[in-house]
Amino acid sequence: MVQQVTQGIKISVKTEFDGTFYKGRRIQYAFAYTITIENQSKDTVQLTSRYWKIKDSLNYTEIVEGDGVIGQKPILLPGERHSYTSGCLLVSPFGAMRGHYNMVNFATTRKFRVSIPLFNLSAPFSIN
Fold first, then answer.
1. First to last CA, the chain
2. How high is the pLDDT of residue 121?
3. What is the reported pTM?
């Protein structure tokens, strides 16, 4: 598990390999990741959007941006946590993701960015 704290918001990431399948004539490697967002600050905050940079070992890069996470824009009171699981597909058995969440502090109305630490995605059968 990787973790990082930015401006009082702790991000923890756990990954899992979900298997392989063919899409068209190309093999795809499926990965799941569970993220826990913990508000360690003294203010209420809301996650408004996300940005991901996903890269595989064949040097293919995908950028994903959008509102919220899995259709939600969670509001976190001080001490609260929000966890969700999502996934991605790679065309190689190795890759990595990193990104950030855009958030707003309700006490100050200030927008800020929370870093999502780099985490690796690897199929266990391909690790030697």
1. 20
2. 96
3. 0.93
